[in-house]
Amino acid sequence: MNRYPLWKNLLIAFVLLLGAIYAAPNLFGEIPAVQITPARAGAPFDPYALAARLEPKLGEAGLAHQGFLYDPGALRIRFADTETQIQAKDLIESELNPDPAKPEVIVALNLLPGTPEWLARLGAKPMYLGLDLRGGVHFLLEVDMEGAVTKRLDAIAADLRSLMRSERVRHQGISRSGKLIEARFADEPSAEAARRIITRNMPDLVVDILPQGEAVRLVARLTPAAEQTIREYALKQNITTLHNRINELGVAEPVIQQQGAERIVVQLPGVQDVAKAKDILGRTATLEVRLVDDTPGALEEALAGRIPPGTELLYERNGRPILVKKDVVLTGERLTDAQPGFDGQTGEPAVHLTLDSAGSRIFRDVTRENVGKRMAILLIERGQAEVVTAPVIRTEISGGRVQISGAMTVEEARDIALLLRAGSLAAPMRIVEERTVGPSLGKENIERGVTATLWGFVIIAVFIISYYQLIGFYSVVALAANLMLLVALLSLLQATLTLPGIAAMALTLGMAIDANVLINERIREELRAGVSPQMAIATGYERAFATILDSNVTTLIAGLALLVFGSGPVRGFAVVHCLGILSSMFSAILVSRMLVNFTYGGKKRIAHLSIG
């Protein structure tokens, strides 16, 4: 009657063992580390060679480390304390970036989990801690929406020049003036032809023709709907770009979300280097296509310090100098997609670019007019331009498909494609609020939260054991199992724990013990009615189940509503609350019943049931 089959006992024990394994990483804390990543996406980066170079330098400086962690795009060095970490960061920075204006790598302070290797191999990881528990930085960024609209209008003006040239409509100049694009024509028929072409190709523009003396002025402006779309796109594009940039800091669970119509909230838990975080947030990265100046003797003149007007001396990835023209043929704004792949002829890693309709037209015209000349594809990041490749134009390229290849690995091709997809910021941003939460404050919050939860557990345990005796002790064991399973679930899901989450844990303890109280009181009622102890145990668990299920389902519905409609700390509370309800159902009913069965299930007659 009060015995579980062997498979059920083994299953419960297995679940508890898994819970113990996946909750354990949270006991080991975090280890200070220095993280090194390439300053430019796609730049050559060998973490093993870098470690071999840095290890003797750290030894000479007396900075003991606790090991290197190697990733394809990052090297992390662990240290025993933050003081050694900061000293090592300064040493590494001076060693790897002798010219601070042109950094070769990004050196950032970081915190890594102290999980033992054997646990890490099982996939066990600690919970992520929120900004209020771990410390870090909080930024409130404001997007310059007018700048986004202006940038788009400048691009439209350039498109109109190309469009008028391809349609063979003569004009006397196209320029942007405020939020208007003005085009001047010698006569009204030319202006009317231009208006028809613009209306057909650019439905987002409203066009008016205004006489201006003997000439005719055509004025175009964006429709309100198009302007609103540009603003919304700028915000979404900036959020996407920020996500990709913050990955370089190795931040676990960064919070990047929209606030209002023009602002973005960025929270970076665990980031100690605020200056480095601000540098990453403000980065620009885009693509430019320019023609190469291969005039005989021009490159030699440039290397001698006499750069010809209208040109710029740059360097290819292999360090070879190249002279490119300053006029930009095409920018990354015309990209609709960038994917890593391979060159169909040589099999080398490559990046395949897809251009929009305007970009396809511009690229077709430029390649048709410059067959036999070289075209440089530049990646511009942190204000520095690097020539990725400079192929010779063999024939006209149409269809909007462009390939970048040459001297890159598969990993570099993937990184360049990622960076180009993210693009540059769609609009400038400024930091309107900056707040730093120190690790000491985060540690204090953890200690207070843990203390509150621990004291809540102790008080509940004392009361339940004194009131329900041995059965009460089993209820407390089930409560401890519930807490362990909840932590294991949060760790497995890699959820972010915040102060409201700790509050939800404390609330879960009270709600979880409520189920055991219902069971224990039901058993006592059966005993008072004269039912045998064995029957009282079975009836108590069976009849209390419906009440426990009803109460937990209604509470779960409220938690799901908070999860769906809440945001920020409210959602953090809701996640822990909902998981706590699920784990409490398992522990209160199955774990406590298994312990009671072990004690009383094998006895035919029970003289006394220790339940108070």
UniProtKB/TrEMBL annotation:
Main location: membrane
Compartments (UniProt record): Cell membrane
Gene3D superfamilies associated with the record: 3.30.1360.200, 3.30.70.3400, Multidrug efflux transporter AcrB transmembrane domain (1.20.1640.10)
Domain Protein export membrane protein SecD/SecF C-terminal span(s) in chain numbering: 429-597
UniProt keyword Lyase present: no
SecD export protein N-terminal TM domain mapped to chain residues: 1-99
Pfam families given in the database record: Sec_GG (PF07549), SecD-TM1 (PF13721), SecD_1st (PF21760), SecD_SecF_C (PF02355), SecDF_P1_head (PF22599)
Annotated keywords: Cell membrane, Membrane, Protein transport, Translocation, Transmembrane, Transmembrane helix, Transport
Coiled coil: none
Record-annotated membrane-spanning stretches: 449-468, 473-493, 499-519, 544-566, 572-596
Domain SecDF P1 head subdomain: 312-427
Membrane-related topology note: Multi-pass membrane protein
Location of the Protein translocase subunit SecDF P1 domain: 235-294
UniProt similarity note: Belongs to the SecD/SecF family. SecD subfamily.
Task of the protein: Part of the Sec protein translocase complex. Interacts with the SecYEG preprotein conducting channel. SecDF uses the proton motive force (PMF) to complete protein translocation after the ATP-dependent function of SecA.
Subunit structure as annotated in this protein's UniProt entry: Forms a complex with SecF. Part of the essential Sec protein translocation apparatus which comprises SecA, SecYEG and auxiliary proteins SecDF-YajC and YidC.
Protein name (database record): Protein translocase subunit SecD
Native source species: Tepidiphilus baoligensis
